[in-house]
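Format notes (please read before filing issues)

Several people have asked whether sequences and structure tokens are stored in separate files. They are not. Every record keeps both together, in the order shown below: the sequence lines, then the token lines. Line labels are part of the format and must not be stripped during preprocessing.
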Amino acid sequence: MKFRRKGIFLLLIFSILLGFASPDSSPPNVVSEWLSVKPRHSNLLKDALTDGTSNGEPSELWSPLPDQGWRPCGENMRPVKPTNSSGYLQVFLDGGLNQQRMGICDAVAVAKILNATLVIPLLEVNPVWKDSSSFEEIFDVDHFIDVLKDDINIVKELPFEYAWSTREFYATAIRETRIKTAPVHASDHWYTENVLPILQSYGIAAISPFSHRLAFDNMPEDIQRLRCKVNFQALTFVPHIRALGDALVNRLRYPYSRSEPEHGLLHQFTYKKPEPKKFVVLHLRFDKDMAAHSACDFGGGKAEKLALARYRQMMWQGRVLNSQFTDEELRSQGRCPMTPEEVGLLLAALGFDNSTRLYLASHKVYGGKARLETLRRLFPLMEDKKSLASPEERAQIKGKASLLAAVDYYVSMHSDIFISASPGNMHNALVGHRTFESLKTIRPNMGLLGQLFLDKNMSWVDFRQAVVEGHHYRHGQLRIRKPKQSIYTYPAPDCMCRA
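Then the structure lines:
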């Protein structure tokens, strides 16, 4: 009995330690969903590991995009700043960093449509990431105002007579100055008919919620160009984010420079700076929220399925459309985000090998180190913010999801190649921004990959051939925006002109 009690005590201590080791605050009984993580594609992985050490990378992988005949549009139209403002416009933006970024662009456009003075947008606390970062903590406010000074009036805060217009004021009752009914993808006419009268009557209007509340189609050309100007010129990160981003990029380009020994004056004349290395940024959004909402099977066994089902019930009362379908149905339709293992196999099949420098842009990985183990075996030179930056450098962004995402966004924009493991706001924002700058971006063919990963008997040779052929025209070639598509993902022809 004594030994039995001791064994139970040790098991309890072990469970508690495992619980503390997990990156989220889940109770210890959820740890079992992590312990069952194991490779799902062992046959492909075995050959990929061998292939990645014996063959060099194809040279065309790193070649820049050919000139496609499109450039960012010049300033052919002189902006006309309104002389008499119709009132103050407030917007309350929810979502993560990149959803808020698009909302900021739309807010400037709406202020222009209404001839209003824009108050620096208020960012809501994200319910998933629990981040309370303000606009001023993420973006360079003075730069934002300066770039747009000839387009609209912008103020950092409301004057004293309107200081009552706050989140708290609108949370307590229905207010005549708050617009809650702005439809998704509203037209410019909707704003002039429904919001302008409120501005003229009260001198202020607050729109909440606001995300995705401005249409992409049938907009005046000057409004579209203004949205582009905000996204690609006015929105820059605060100096300490840019400084940390530059440091990370430099360490990826020159991985050995930090450890180079100094040998006095002679060294200064004889030391030659090494050639810069190329690197890939992998945006790996594989958090528990995404995994649960996708309703796919990620290979974690019964414990993981139960844990994700409980999470779906807790977050969305089980109302997740995908949960009606089987994993095979979801994968065959390309609706399952790739696991770190699967995106590693994709990169290996495209020709990247174990000498590839990989930067992992990710806030939190569901499954922790166990989930990343296979990806790291394929790409041992994988880095992230924690491995590249010191604790002191990370202190200003620690615990701030939006600032962490901002650093990843900055590094992604300075990489040779960007690839995202799953569609989403970060993916869409960077695809559009890199298209605008003519930078190489690999877009995974999710439908094809879903079907390939379902075939457990496929050989590595056949898998690699299918991947290469299926991604031949998915390396960042410019695509013209279609109706209803976002100008922030497809900047041509609204933000770009033929050369």
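For reference, the curators noted about this record: Residues 1-30, 259-264 have pLDDT under 50 and may be disordered. The longest strand covers residues 88-93.
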